[in-house]
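Quick one, tokens below. Sequence please?
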């Protein structure tokens, strides 16, 4: 069995990341593989020391991804937060424990950066994702809101 490693994404990983993002009901409606906007977004993320776009690499095959934004704050006595977004695990990996291992790795990245909180959002229609995050100790303590621009 191939060992899966978690690492920072490279530009070569971008097509696989976008494919993971597009491979569900919500992503299929909003992602556009091949759109050059992803290249500009990747460049901005790679240039920002407070961003970590990461992949789960199983012998050269990208089987998961996530992004962590490290956010400084005044509240909580100046605490840094890790904001985890765009978490995806390949459909053939569901139920394998990979998601749990990847999220544990993400929490450790936040801890290593001095974060005192790790937070995330998940779409309200993703009941399975919500149960998964709750099983990892995440608590739905706030109501998130968004406004499209």
């Amino acid at each position: 069995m191939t060992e899966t490693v978690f690492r920072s994404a490279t530009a070569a990983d971008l097509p696989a990341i976008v494919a993971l993002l597009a491979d569900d009901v919500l992503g299929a409606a909003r992602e556009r593989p091949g759109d050059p906007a992803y290249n500009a977004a990747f460049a901005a993320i790679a240039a920002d020391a407070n961003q970590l776009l990461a992949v789960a690499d199983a012998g050269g095959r990208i089987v998961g991804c996530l992004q962590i934004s490290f956010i400084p704050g005044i509240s909580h006595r100046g605490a840094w937060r890790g904001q985890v977004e765009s978490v995806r695990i390949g459909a053939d990996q569901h139920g394998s424990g990979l998601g749990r291992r990847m999220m544990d790795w993400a929490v450790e990245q936040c801890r290593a950066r001095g974060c005192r909180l790790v937070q995330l959002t998940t779409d309200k229609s993703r009941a399975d994702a919500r149960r998964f995050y709750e099983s990892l100790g995440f608590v739905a303590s706030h109501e998130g809101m968004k406004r499209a621009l």
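The chain has a mean pLDDT of 94. The helical segments are 14-22, 25-30, 37-47, 75-78, 98-112, 127-135.
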